[in-house]
Design a protein that fits this description.
228 residues, mainly alpha, 7 helices, 0% strand, disordered N terminus
């Protein structure tokens, strides 16, 4: 039995429609939500531990990025963070009447973090020598625990985030807006020398792989009617 409408949600959803969507979500997907929430601390802890290990790792790869010869370093944190937060706000509005997207994002985020642990392990890049640290309050509070993590590199998480959000949506204007925000963020993190260009270029295929994996896994227990 389909648990949510598959029609695309337009702007200005009514309070009644929002309430109905959340009641159906809790009725049909509460156990998936509760299990996902229970596993969230494990994902945060595992990624934080791997970041600390990566930061202290004695070996690494020094990459002479051609992009750095023409870009920066410029401190454009004041642009990167608003663009990142804008992507979340635009996407969160869509969740008002599609709350299942919240679970989807949490699951996809966990898979992407797993892939990021793998890529950082296989390609332990040294931080760019003239890096300008990107101070993101959200990332610092949850993953960095107040400590600088300059080797959080392969691949770019700030670029990956809006791509992940876009892939969870049905094709449409918002999806392309999010892809555009990802491209802008990718350019800016390279300009700030927070990430190498290869970090940014690796983000789209890694997120796409994570998205396909997440879709395949949840397809084993969810009704196909609620999958994109």
């Amino acid at each position: 039995m389909p648990s949510e409408p598959t029609a695309p949600i337009e702007s200005d959803p009514s309070p009644g429609r929002v309430a109905a969507a959340w009641r159906a979500f809790w009725r049909d997907h509460r156990w998936e939500l509760l299990i996902s929430l229970a596993l969230t601390p494990l994902v945060i802890y595992s990624f934080g531990e791997r970041l600390e290990w990566s930061e202290q790792r004695p070996d690494g790869v020094a990459f002479d990025d051609p992009a750095f010869r023409v870009l920066g370093p410029w401190n454009v944190t004041w642009l990167i963070l608003p663009l990142s937060w804008t992507s979340m706000i635009l996407w969160a509005r869509r969740c008002l009447t599609r709350p299942l997207l919240l679970i989807d994002f949490g699951q996809l985020y966990a898979v992407v973090m797993g892939l990021k642990i793998l890529t950082m392990t296989l390609l332990p890049l040294y931080a760019p020598p003239d890096i300008i640290e990107l101070k993101d309050p959200y990332i610092e509070a949850i993953f960095y625990q107040g400590e600088p993590r300059l080797r959080d590199l392969m691949f770019s998480g700030h670029t990956a985030q809006p791509i992940a959000l876009a892939l969870l949506l049905a094709p449409g204007r918002l999806r392309w807006v999010l892809f555009g925000l990802a491209a802008a963020i990718g350019f800016l993190v390279v300009a700030q020398h927070v990430h190498y260009s290869i970090d940014v270029l690796a983000a789209p295929p890694c997120v796409w792989l994570g998205w396909r994996l997440q879709r395949w896994v949840i397809g084993h227990w969810r009704d196909p009617a609620v999958l994109h």
